[in-house]
Each structure stands twice: as structure tokens, then as C-alpha cells.
């Protein structure tokens, strides 16, 4: 039981939030490329400009944060935040006034 509690603080969620320019054709191309590369790195769309990724440890989260930093476009505002699974589990999500369940990360396999 204590092991599960520790995992809730060790397992991380990486959130990438961005607001990129889309005025020109080149801007739209950079936006699409950045979004595609985030998806290829295992992120899922949470909202239009917010993507999330479940990571099994702080170290693994740091690897994915560094990958995002390497593909940052030259213009726009990008925020990267890392929160624990425990914190993410407390999120309240609504579609209109109806509350919905938060995304669940993959199940961790244990080998003995």
C-alpha cells in the first residue's frame, strides 16, 4: 500500500502548452511541424494548445522535456510543466457543466 502512495509522487505528467503564430504560411507550417513532433514523442492532446505525456519517473520526464526543448519553434510562447501523478489525479475536468474523468496513464508492469 505504501508503495502505491510513493508511486503517486514519483510518476510524472509533462504538460506542454503553446501559443504559436499562424499568420503566414511559414508560421502555420512551423506550428504543424511542432505539433506533429510532440505527438511523435508520445504526447496526447489535452486541449487545442495543451499536450500531456505520462512518464514513469522524474528522470524519464526530464528526457521528454529535453526533447521538446530541442524542437522549439523560433517564435511563439511555449510553457513546459511537470506535475506528479498525485497532483494530476486531483484535476477537475468539465465538458460544459458536466464533469468528466481525467485521462489515466498506462498501467505499470511489475516484474518479480
- What does the overall shape look like? globular
Unreliable segments (pLDDT under 50, ≥5 consecutive)?
A: none
The biggest beta sheet, please? 4 strands, antiparallel
Distance between the termini: 17 Å
Q: Enumerate how many helices there are, as a single number.
A: 4
- Computed over alpha carbons, the radius of gyration is 16 Å
Topology pattern, helix = H, strand = E: HEHEEHEHEE
Tell me the structural class: alpha+beta
| Chain oligomer state | single chain
Strand arrangement, major sheet: 2-3-1-4
- Helix residue percentage: 25-40%
Mean pLDDT metric: 89
The beta-strand count equals 6
Strand content: 25-35%
GO molecular function: hydrolase activity
Protein name: CRISPR-associated endoribonuclease Cas2
Subunit structure: Homodimer, forms a heterotetramer with a Cas1 homodimer.
Family: Belongs to the CRISPR-associated endoribonuclease Cas2 protein family.
Amino acid at each position: 500500500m505504501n508503495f502505491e502512495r510513493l508511486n503517486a509522487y514519483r510518476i510524472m505528467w509533462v504538460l506542454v502548452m503553446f501559443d504559436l503564430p499562424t499568420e503566414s504560411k511559414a508560421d502555420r507550417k512551423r506550428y504543424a511541424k511542432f505539433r506533429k513532433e510532440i505527438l511523435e514523442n508520445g504526447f496526447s492532446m489535452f486541449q487545442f494548445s495543451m499536450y500531456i505525456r505520462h512518464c514513469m519517473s522524474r528522470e524519464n520526464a526530464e528526457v521528454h522535456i529535453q526533447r521538446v526543448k530541442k524542437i522549439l519553434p523560433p517564435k511563439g510562447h511555449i510553457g513546459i510543466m511537470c506535475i506528479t501523478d498525485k497532483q494530476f489525479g486531483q484535476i477537475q475536468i468539465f465538458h460544459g457543466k458536466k464533469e468528466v474523468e481525467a485521462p489515466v496513464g498506462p498501467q505499470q508492469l511489475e516484474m518479480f
